[in-house]
Specification:
about 375 residues, alpha/beta, Enolase-like, domain 1, binds the ligand O=C(O)[C@H](O)[C@@H](O)[C@@H](O)C(=O)NO, 12 strands, hydro-lyase activity, TIM Barrel, nine-stranded mixed sheet, 2 domains, binds magnesium ion, 13 helices
Length: about 375
C-alpha cells in the first residue's frame, strides 16, 4: 500500500492531430509527438498509470512536489494526497498545475482499481455501465471538404447520426481561420446541421471563446430558434459577470465553466452567481477525478446537471459514476480522421461506442486503459 516509486516514461506516439496556433486540433499528416506515462508503484509492486504531455510531468515538478507528497504514503489516501498537492500549488509559483494534479490523481485511481481488480467507476460507486455519447466535432477549418463550410458540417453530422450518435456538438470557426470569428457563419453552420439531422438529435454549440456580450447574445438567440440544447464558452470565462448577464438574457441553457481555473471552488461561485444553467467540469480542468466528483456532487445538490469535458477513460468513469450528467463527450471528430482507430499505445478503445450511440465502460481494472507496454518500451525516448 505504501508508495515507493514514481516514474515517467516518455515515448513516441504517432498521430494525425495537429494543434493550431490557438491550441485547437485539426487533421494533418501522421507525425510523431512525445507522450508521457506516469507510473506510481507501491512496496508490493502494484502499479497505476496515467498519460499526459511530457511537460505536465517534467522532472522538476515530479521531484519538487509529487515525490515529496506521495513517497512513503498509503496510496489509498487519495483525498489527503490530493489536498496536500493542491496546497503545494500556492507556493509553487504556478509550476504545479491542475493538469499535473489530474495526472497524479488519475494514476492513484488506476492503482487502486488495478490493486483491487475493479474498474474505477465501480470503486466510486457505479451509476451505469454504458453512457450516451455526443459527437464533439473539431473546430472549423479551411480544408476542402473538411469543415470549411456549413454544408461540410451538415454532411459530417449526417455521418455521425448514421454512426449512432444521438447528440452532436459543433465547435465552429475560430482564429487562425482567416475570416473568423463570425456569428453569422456560426449560425449558418448550426442551421445547416439542424436541417440535416432533423429535430430529434440533440445539438450544442461550443463557440469562439472571446465574443462580446452583444455577439454572444445574438448567437444564443439564434440557437434558441434552432432548438439547441446549450451554448458553451462564447465569451471569456474569466468574466463570470458576463456569463451571469448572458444567462439572465437567454432561454437556451448556458453551460460552464470549462477552461476557467479554480477547480470545484470556483464552480461553486458560478452556481451562486447564477452564471450558468448547466455546470461543467473535466478531469484535466479541475485537477483530477477526485475534484471532478466533488463538482458533480456540488451541482447535484443544486438540482443542476454537470456535463463532463473531454474524452478518454478518466472522464468516462466520472460520467459512469454519476446521475446528473447526460452525456460522454466523444471526440474530437473530423471527416478526415477515424476516431475509432484509437491510440497506438492502447490495444483497444477506452470508449467503444455501439450503433445506438452508447459508450460501454470497459470492465478492465483501474481506468481500464488497455496499455500496450511493449509498444511504449519499443518507442521509448527517455
Ligand atoms: O482545445 C480545446 O479547447 C478543447 O479540446 C476543446 O476544443 C474541446 O475539447 C472542448 O471545448 N470541448 O468542450
Ligand atoms: Mg468546450
Amino acid at each position: 500500500m505504501i508508495i515507493t516509486d514514481i516514474s515517467v516514461i516518455v515515448f513516441g506516439h504517432v498521430t494525425r492531430r495537429h494543434a493550431d496556433a490557438a491550441g485547437h486540433a485539426h487533421p494533418g499528416p501522421a507525425h510523431t509527438v512525445e507522450q508521457a506515462m506516469l507510473t506510481i508503484t507501491t512496496e508490493s509492486g502494484e502499479q497505476g498509470h496515467s498519460f499526459c504531455p511530457p511537460a505536465v510531468v517534467r522532472p522538476d515538478v515530479i521531484d519538487k512536489y509529487v515525490r515529496k507528497v506521495l513517497i512513503g504514503q498509503d496510496h489509498r489516501d487519495r483525498e489527503r494526497l490530493w489536498q496536500d498537492l493542491a496546497h503545494w500549488q500556492r507556493g509553487s509559483a504556478a509550476q504545479l498545475s491542475d493538469r499535473t494534479l489530474a495526472v497524479v490523481d488519475c494514476a492513484l485511481w488506476d492503482l487502486a482499481g488495478r490493486t483491487l481488480n475493479q474498474p474505477v467507476y465501480k470503486l466510486i460507486g457505479g451509476y451505469r455501465d454504458k453512457v450516451p455519447a455526443y459527437g464533439s466535432i473539431m473546430c472549423g477549418d479551411e480544408i476542402e471538404n473538411g469543415l470549411a463550410t456549413p454544408d461540410d458540417y451538415a454532411r459530417f453530422a449526417e455521418t455521425l447520426v448514421a454512426r449512432g450518435y444521438k447528440g452532436i456538438k459543433l465547435h465552429t470557426w475560430m482564429p487562425p481561420v482567416s475570416w473568423s470569428p463570425d456569428v453569422g457563419m456560426d449560425l449558418k453552420a448550426c442551421a445547416a446541421v439542424r436541417e440535416a439531422v432533423g429535430p430529434d438529435i440533440a445539438l450544442m454549440l461550443d463557440a469562439y471563446h472571446w465574443y462580446s456580450r452583444a455577439d454572444a447574445l445574438k448567437l444564443g438567440r439564434g440557437l434558441e430558434k434552432l432548438g439547441f440544447d446549450w451554448i458553451e464558452e462564447p465569451m471569456d470565462e474569466q468574466s463570470m459577470s458576463s456569463y451571469q448577464w448572458l444567462t439572465d438574457n437567454l432561454d437556451i441553457p448556458v453551460i460552464g465553466p470549462e477552461s476557467a481555473g479554480g477547480k470545484h471552488w470556483h464552480r461553486a461561485e458560478w452556481i451562486k452567481a447564477g452564471a450558468c444553467d448547466i455546470l461543467r467540469t473535466g478531469v484535466n480542468d479541475v485537477g483530477g477525478i477526485t475534484p471532478a466528483l466533488k463538482t458533480m456532487h456540488l451541482a447535484e445538490a443544486f438540482g443542476m446537471a454537470c456535463e463532463v469535458h473531454g474524452n478518454t477513460a478518466m472522464n468516462l468513469h466520472v460520467v459512469a459514476a454519476t446521475r446528473n450528467c447526460r452525456w460522454y463527450e466523444r471526440g474530437l471528430l473530423h471527416p478526415f480522421l477515424e476516431y475509432d482507430d484509437g491510440f497506438d499505445y492502447l490495444k483497444s478503445l477506452s470508449d467503444p461506442m455501439d450503433a445506438d450511440g452508447f459508450v460501454h465502460v470497459p470492465d478492465r481494472p483501474g481506468l481500464g486503459e488497455d496499455i500496450d507496454f511493449d509498444h511504449i518500451d519499443a518507442h521509448r525516448i527517455r
